[in-house]
Design goal:
Shape: globular
Helix content: 25-40%
Strand content: 5-15%
Largest sheet: 6 strands, parallel
Strand order of the largest sheet: 2-1-3-4-6-5
Radius of gyration: 24 Å
Number of strands: 18
Structural class: alpha/beta
Distance between the termini: 45 Å
Length: about 550
């Protein structure tokens, strides 16, 4: 049942204005579209306020899944997601999603319950001191013990969430504070927008001088370009003839069918990018830093000049010292780049990189055999059948190394890669969360037969609320990302084989549709049927147990 169809015991707006109402009013004011949660008595005041104040509540099967759904909604819409969890184990179940959001740089608000203040430190049921744990996986975590200060603490959370690189925040509210009557006068307006840092005159002059010398410039578009977009980006790329790669949340920030795109900004699955980093005489990195995806900057050519742009000063010079470090917003830097005199880019070098990436991508296709399709054949069959505006989710492990290189995104918020933290389990909830964030877009999740088992019950969540997404299980009957490197390193594996379960029947048991596909034609039919059905679905594809060549980077 949709929450907007949920029966109410009183007319909207007539419930008491208590701590729960203060939370819900604040969430609505900042643009939160859904609250993701799992039932808990201490958070009933928030549930009541959602019902009476028309903020849709999505009830998931597990707190981790609820938080992953909230984070997914943020990655799709560009607005913060919100999750509410009960005390003790409810909060500790949120630790891993908070860690994922922290490592991905995703704004996420988690509100957690606690026992009543009158029972703190007395051994109340399910009561545990969770703040130390949450402080290690969020940008900011605190407890509010005065109901009148709930909006004030949420304002602080908002500022902390957006300061510098975005990330998750956590506010703990004891149950008696949530249920306490609050003077409506404490309602606050929306927190002030975080200002966009400008490029200084000195940095603009230095940028002009540096770019005037560049002949082989490489543009890397990072996470911050997703949260701070510029309508001048494509014009700047084309004016200067810049070859460019897109990192993580920036996937699709420029249509990846663009002639100057050289593939995902993910060195483990892009040999052309590694070559470009070595050959470039100028690397422009916007809204990101040199982390694992870019091999920590170690493979940048010795003679290259690095321009790094990031609003978070703590990330400037991280892992690789920049020749010009600009503490500015991505959009303001793009505006400055658009005004720089046209660079004397070696167009043959730039176009050669784009051609090399297309050749590399074409050469990735592998052979299928009697054990199943090659993973790339399965992925390509799915993407060929899916509509252009589809949202894709990829798993961590062997699956994302295959999928990342195959996808070409046309718009931002269309790709949610679950692998930034290495945490399995986000994939299926990401699919559910994306279906709530953009119910008109088909959603496809690529996951292995190991990862699907973590939160497969969330197909039920989507079905209950009339949402749909498709889980494509690439089934090699083993934990391939671990077993295959074991075999290479030791000549033997220590993995127990996973029997081929009928995942389609699991989907059907949870109210969805199930398919078993052994060839591309069957996949095409299944994808089109699942999209048309508007029901959650699992498409199970037996695939060869073959390691991605890019796994060498993490083995």
């Amino acid at each position: 049942m949709h929450t907007d169809q949920m029966p109410k015991t009183a007319a909207a707006g007539t419930s008491p204005f208590d701590g729960g109402a203060a939370v819900v009013d604040w969430l609505k004011t900042v643009g939160v579209a859904h609250v993701f949660s799992v039932s808990g008595g201490p958070i009933n005041a928030i549930y009541r306020a959602c019902a009476h104040r028309d903020l849709p509540l999505v009830h998931a099967r597990h707190e981790a899944a609820a938080c992953f759904m909230a984070e997914a909604s943020s990655r799709v819409t560009g607005r913060p997601g919100a999750a509410v969890v009960t005390l003790g184990p409810g909060v500790t179940n949120a630790v891993t999603p908070a860690l994922v959001a922290m490592m991905a740089g995703t704004p996420l608000i988690i509100v957690g319950a606690h026992a009543a203040t009158t029972t703190l430190e007395r051994g109340a049921g399910m009561s545990y001191e969770v703040l130390p744990a949450m402080k290690t996986v969020t940008k900011w975590a605190a407890r509010v013990t005065d109901p009148a200060r709930i909006p004030e603490y949420l304002d602080i959370a908002w500022r902390e969430m957006w300061a510098g690189r975005p990330g998750p925040v956590f506010l703990e509210i004891p149950t008696d504070i949530l249920n306490a009557t609050v003077d409506p006068a404490v309602r606050r307006p929306r927190p002030a927008a975080v200002g966009a840092a400008a490029v200084s005159a000195a940095d603009t002059a230095a940028l002009h001088a540096l770019l005037a010398q560049a002949r082989r410039p490489l543009l890397l578009l990072g996470d911050e370009t997703f949260w701070d977009r510029s309508d001048r980006l494509v014009a700047a790329i084309e004016r200067h003839g810049l070859p460019f790669a897109t990192l993580r949340l920036a996937r699709g920030i420029v249509d990846e069918h663009h002639a100057q795109w050289i593939g995902p900004g993910y060195a483990p699955c892009n040999g052309t990018l590694r070559r470009a980093l070595a050959d470039a005489d100028c690397v422009l990195m916007v809204g990101h830093h040199f982390e694992f995806d870019l091999e920590f900057g170690d493979t940048v050519g010795a003679g290259a000049r690095v321009v790094q742009v990031c609003s978070d000063r703590a990330l400037l010079h991280k892992n690789r010292r920049a020749d010009l470090a600009i503490p500015a917003s991505a959009s303001n830097f793009v505006a400055a780049l658009a005004e720089v005199p046209a660079m004397a880019t070696d167009r043959a070098w730039a176009s050669g990189l784009a051609a090399a990436w297309r050749q590399e991508r074409d050469a990735q296709r592998g052979e299928s055999d009697n054990q199943g399709l090659h993973p790339i054949a399965a992925i390509d069959a799915v993407t060929a059948a899916a509509p252009a505006h589809t949202i894709y989710v990829s798993s961590h492990g062997n699956v994302d190394f295959w999928a990342d290189a195959r996808l070409r995104l046309r718009a931002p918020g269309r790709y949610l890669r679950a692998g930034q933290s290495g945490a399995l389990g986000a994939e299926v909830p990401y699919g559910a969360g994306a279906s709530f964030a953009d119910p008109d877009a088909p959603v496809v999740v690529f996951v292995g037969d190991g990862g699907v088992g973590f939160h497969v019950a969330e197909l039920d969540t989507a079905e209950r609320y009339g949402r749909a997404f498709i889980v494509v299980v690439l089934d090699d009957e083993c934990w391939g990302a671990i077993a295959l490197p074991q075999a290479g390193a030791f000549g033997e594996t220590y993995e127990m084989a996973l029997p081929r379960r009928d995942w389609g029947k699991v989907a059907e048991g949870l109210g969805g549709k199930g398919y078993l596909c052994t060839d591309p034609a069957a996949i095409d039919t299944a994808v089109r049927d699942a999209v048309a059905s508007r029901k959650p679905a699992i498409i199970q594809v037996p695939v060869r147990s073959v390691i991605s060549p890019y796994m060498d980077y993490i083995s």
